[in-house]
Amino acid sequence: MSANDRPATGQPIATYDSAFLKACRREPVPHTPVWFMRQAGRSLPEYRKVRQGIPMLESCMRPELVTEITLQPVRRHGVDAAIYFSDIVVPLKAIGVDLDIKPGVGPVVAHPVRTRADLAQLRDLTPEDVSYVTEAIRLLTAELGATPLIGFAGAPFTLASYLIEGGPSRTYEHTKALMHGDPQLWADLVDRLADITAAFLKVQIEAGASAVQLFDSWAGALAPADYRRSVLPASAKVFRAVEGYGVPRIHFGVGTGELLGLMGEAGADVVGVDWRVPLDDAARRVGPGKALQGNLDPAVLFAPREAVEAKTREVLDAAAGLEGHVFNLGHGVMPDTDADALTRLVEYVHTQTAR
Question: Which of 66, 71, 98, 322 is within CB 3.0–4.6 Å of 136 for a Cys-Cys bond?
Answer without folding.
Answer: 66
